[in-house]
Amino acid sequence: MSYTAKNKADNPMLRMTMSFGVSTGLWIGAKFILNALSINHAWVGIVVWLVDLYILFLFYSSTLIYRFREKGGNISFSEAYSFILLLMFFSAIIAAAVRWIYLSFFDSSYLSLMYEQTMPVLEKMMPAEIDEVEMRLREFLVPIRFSLFYIFYDLIVASVLGLILAPIVRRSKNILPDDFED
User: What is the predicted pLDDT for the residue at 138?
Assistant: First the structure.
């Protein structure tokens, strides 16, 4: 029996991370939009914190669902960690698309405002290299580069998040016999 494309699609981890990644990515994208709106409305910052907590809950619950549905209630640290990283990978792609659409079509002034707020700080920190820094910052603060950078950033966050959540979600088979008593 050969390994075909059908078998690749039957990978439960891949299927579930893609499925959960869409909703999680939309929530991460919504968090970015709310964060951009919090510049003008301070109360939105509280909503951003609540969305952050909900996203953490989504990662935790998605990993638990995978553990129970596909792994029979037992999952190793490495499997849970891999699931969280793969989930964030798909989420980051969806969130990057949301960021790009928002920055390109709805709020093109966000990146220019970020530039105006960043330059005075950089001028104080690096007065000698300010021309080079200004050129690099202008190159970076375009919607597509900014959005693609956040894929990398989200994966770094996922690697740390995975180190925290994977031990919590991890569950091994009982190594003691059923008739063992203290």
Answer: 73
Gap between the Cα atoms of 17 and 114, Å rounded: 33
Give per-residue pLDDT as tens, 2-22. Answer: 455 555 557 888 999 999 999
Q: Which pLDDT value is given to residue 135?
A: 76
Give the integer Cα–Cα distance in Å for 171 and 152: 29
State how far the Cα of 13 lies from the Cα of 10, in Å rounded to an integer.
Answer: 9
The Cα–Cα gap between 32 and 48 comes to 8
- The three-state (H, E, C) secondary structure of 81-146, written as one string: HHHHHHHHHHHHHHHHHHHHHHHHHHCCHHHHHHHHHHHHHHHHHCCCCHHHHHHHHHHHCCHHHH
∠ CA 60-175-173, rounded to 5°: 30
Distance from C-alpha of 62 to C-alpha of 128, rounded to nearest angstrom: 49
CA distances from 174 to 80, 141, 165, 168 (A): 18, 52, 21, 16
**pTM for this one?**
0.79
> For 75, which DSSP code?
B
